[in-house]
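Quick one, T. Sequence first:
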Amino acid sequence: MSNPLLSVFETPFELPPFSEIKEDHFVEAIDQALEEARLEVKNIIENSEEATFENVIEALEQSGEKLSRNASILFNLNSAETNDEIQKIAQDISPKLAAFDSEVKQNEDLFKKVKTVHDQHEELGLDPEQKKLLHNTYQDFVRRGVELEGADKDRFKEISIELSKLSLKFSENVLAETNAFELIIEDEADLSGLPKDVIDRAAQLAIQKGHTGKWIFTLQAPSYIPFMEYADHRGLREQLFMAYMSKCLKGDNHDNQSIIKEVIALKAELAKLLGYPTFAHYILEQRMAEDPKKVQEFLDDLLNKSLPKAKDEVQEIKEFMKSQGADHELQRWDWAYYSEKLRKEKYELDDELVKPYFKLENVIDGVFQTAEKLFDIRFVKNASLPKYHEDVRTYEVVNSDGEGVAVFLADFFPREGKRGGAWMTSFRGEKKVNNKRVLPQVSIVCNFTPSSDNAPSLLKFDEVKTLFHEFGHALHGMLADTTYGSLAGTNVYWDFVELPSQIMENWCYEKECLDLFANHFETGELIPTELVDRIIKSSTYHEAYATLRQISFGLLDMAWHSLSPEEAKNISDVSEFEKKAFAPTELFPAVDGTNMSVQFSHIFAGGYAAGYYSYKWAEVLDADAFSVFKENGVFDKTTANSFKENVLSKGGTEHPMDLYKKFRGKEPTVDALLKRAGLIA
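Structure tokens:
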């Protein structure tokens, strides 16, 4: 069979022909695409004409298109539909890509041409997007070590390659550990407290695994979370918690402790080579926050505002436990269980009361209707489009005139070949070729509660928010309208990328929005106003504790990435280091044998290194931005058009604060967030 990755895709919208792509196609296709990209770069370098924006900067932007396409397919599959062979190929390919990137960005002859154009930027008559592309290109070369010499340049390349390998290995270990554990329950009495649909899915999974008459619970979120919230059996909650929090900490071949030490030391060394005190300084140079000091001040400020109330919330749970007859100390595996019980008592609200109104198909329809009312786009299901798994749903996205806007793929349920969590990605980004817009191919991947033989997929309210969140990222990609792909969609400063996603969560609390889709899956009854009121009232329930938890992850991230090279080399105990980082936010007794860092994929296998604070940073932006919708109407077209034109469509074509101010009219303040979180009146 010929290799489909070697040619143009003759498929609808040039989507990857997934059914034709075999694992052994990737190595040949990416190796060939690498050579093509090398030739394209060589032609730029050897061009004897005077260096111009068009023949250097734009030519570089357009080079390596097939390489980027094939690599994105490989790494997207490695996250969402992987196997041993794909993981091995990704491990082999990743260092090749890192080496090529260093090869290009450290080429002195190429950089001379880039610098020549950069030095003339004031006289070239460039528009704002062209100026941003030129600035980014120049900075990218400098930050990739082009000005290093001799052994330092070689070392930078070595570090880049090694970090790419370690990142993949970290992620593979977390996935392997997640898949390896099963809690098999044989006594039906041990299921006490669990909702019927959770029990049914556990029984169904047991049958699939050859354990008929038993129940299986896993570390996948739709299984783990409801068990921790509802299971009366405290010993089993502890067992499941320990399994979850000891992932990659067992001293075996899936242990990530040595990987963390190596990653942190290499990142610190890389930063030092480029003249930065720490890796955090290096990363934050290209963030809205600008430097570690500002991030630390931001986190400390939130910590001071949330810690007293978070302590009160924990004390409230301790007192509630006593009222329930508990005679033991509050432990981590008790928090979700008693918190959920108290929430039900305080607000007459729990997930089981809400879930019937959030059938997955209805929520999908609701998020589509929300986008249609705000941004005049429609989602047309087209099951015939190529997909990488039978569970994936495929849609054409069109505007009010019926013109194509994007292709959208949605992958909702957990499986062994998919890593945990939820994320947005793309198989092709938006750009313009010969003034014609190339349609983006955008995907969201989630791990929602699947249907069972006895019930459809009913989402918890948190899962509804997750869908709206990831859909916000998707809108950022789908509504992009830029000339250059590297500036399109989510290619923005990392502490700005969460604004489009987090602002979308706000519509989940609006009755006007919920009325579009929140119908009882059996009776068709619209979600009652008084139930929505209870959801809104409960939205600040334990919000201080949740804020503190996010702050703790931000502090841990900054602690790891603010180490000097000497400090990084001297880390001997990952757990002890983590314990010190968590100390300012710690509200529970320490639990030996557990660790967050070794499974913290966001910062060790994703793009959030020295950037986890951005979730809270973006909450400041989203709360402030949504206040405009609250003032003008949550579906106000003028406000929505402004957000679309100034934020969603612009990508990274301008500094994010400039884009935000064009929408908002001023810089954001923290007040809207603190008020929404119930931390100030």
